[in-house]
Amino acid sequence: MLKVFLVEDETSVRENLRDNIMWQQYGYQFVGEASDGEMALPLIRKGKPDLLITDINMPFMDGLALAGIVRQEFPQMKVVIISVHNDFEYAQRAIKVGIERYLLKPISRSALQKVLQEIREKIEEEREQNNYREKYKEDMLEYEQFSRRVFFEKVFEGHLSVQEIYEEAQKFSLEMDAASYNLAMVSLREKRNTEEHSKESRLIAGKREELMRYFQRYPEYLMFRWNINTYGILLKGEEEQMEELKGKCREAIIRICAGHDSEIEWCCAIGEPVKRLSMLPQVYSKVNHMMSYRFLKPGQHILTMETTSFSSRGEGKESLENVDIARIDPDIIKNFLAHGQEEEVDDFVDGYLESQKEALKSKMFRDYLMLSIRFTAIGFVERLGYTQNDLLENTYTDKVQILSLNVEDMRFYMQELLHRAIELGNQVMESQSKKLIKRAIIYIEENYTKDSISLNEVASAVEVSANYFSTVFRQETGLTFTEYVTKKRMDKAKQLLRQTERSSGDIAAEVGFKDPHYFSFVFKKTQGCTPREYRGGVRI
């Protein structure tokens, strides 16, 4: 039921309209009246009617002045002017204000009833379209999140000029103007073996959602996904605010993630502020360097330049008595090979060797370390189904005598060995991903005509977490899940429109839309024309 409010200074006219129009019959509820604009305005602000009917000539505040204020404060509210003046100037002013109808007194019941019906239909259509827009926006949220991720990757990897950053940000309604910027990265994953990417626990999903909700509340933070387990947070504000923003960011991450160390591994790194957008790649480089230390210091949740430096024990001695055994645990290398990224290899190796700086003066220790790393990498690739030859063939590591290497040769050896091992791991993952996505696409083929199909449903059907499935699906198909299903539905709909005489409503149901009007909305949004226009010969 739509709400209507009446403003008229002539009591007899006001009462006649109020009492003799069957408001409910036309879908309206009469919610109030006033004798002039001044009296009406606070009542309108309180009641927020859908339709305002007002006279023009009234004391204190006339109808056009009232309409101007109302239309500015409540753009969706419809306004009908009633007047004894058949004056072009009044009509012009009414059009300028955004009046829906201009009715001349005396008003016949039939004329007003016709206007009420037309306005109700218009309001209902506008609301329907708004609902469709919101639903479509919700459906395409996955695509928007992916597009934002690509945008921020380009920003922090230095692939966009400042002008391009502002232009791209505008597409996502992102406010990038600030006097100072910084970057935080937070990694969050379960401690259990996630190699098979089975369903995520509610704990890890809940923590991720809690982080998103917190940072979305504040315009000074822009949170975005970086990879499956890592999120980035762009901090922006005035120069004097940055230390406070950094502190609040760190505190929020600790508050949300702490307390579950037996179940999840988490850490965060925050850079130092810069004054230019063009300097963000430098900030990212330092933050990424700090993040690589999560494998070297697994118990360290907050990674800073200070916490990622290693103090020497027995400085100046070549003796092995002071070697920290925890720093040479093969599990550090295993963990990095299992969860690290190729782009982190160089920083990881630098940090790993830095942690052994004094002990590396010993030839015996260098030989031991190289053998340990070599055997760990071989064991990793053999568990993946490869051989030692697959890892070492045609590489520097295959040709060099690994014993008696100096530190720089060790660095190069480790970098090449780990790069190759992760590359082989990625090939296995890619092969597994292709098989997984093949299963998913078969499932989608069989179920895309169901209105209820969702990313969670398909992820469950192929027995992986929705978070992992979303990332892999986009990598393998080049489309988000929602884009893929929508394209599938639209292609089928176009085929049916071309080859059959079935109604748009029947076709909507056939391709997975319960609501034929929403189907038409999505069709026009994605194809650039309505189903009827497409059938009539419009081709995009």
Q: Radius of gyration over alpha carbons?
A: 33 Å
Estimate the strand proportion: 5-15%
* Mean pLDDT across all amino acids: 84
Structural class: alpha/beta
The largest sheet is: 5 strands, parallel
Q: Quick one: overall form?
A: elongated
Distance between the termini: 40 Å
Question: What's the total helix number?
Answer: 22
Kindly report the spatial arrangement of strands forming the biggest sheet.
2-1-3-4-5
Regions with little confidence, pLDDT below 50 for 5+ residues: 312-319
Please provide the count of β strands. 10
What is the percent of helical residues?
A: 40-55%
Can you tell me about this structure?
The chain has 540 residues and is α/β, with parallel strands linked by helices. It has helices at residues 11-20, 37-47, 63-73, 88-97, 109-139, 141-156, 162-171, 202-216, 242-257, 280-291, 330-339, 345-355, 363-383, 388-392, 396-399, 407-447, 455-461, 466-477, 481-499, 504-510, 516-527, 531-535; strands at residues 2-7, 28-34, 51-55, 78-83, 101-104, 180-190, 221-225, 230-237, 264-270, 302-303. The chain has a 5-stranded parallel β-sheet with strand order 2-1-3-4-5, sandwiched between helices. Strands 7-8-6-9-10 form a 5-stranded mixed β-sheet, with helices on both faces. The longest helix is centred in the C-terminal third of the chain and has 41 residues, at 407-447. Residues 312-319 have low confidence and may be disordered.
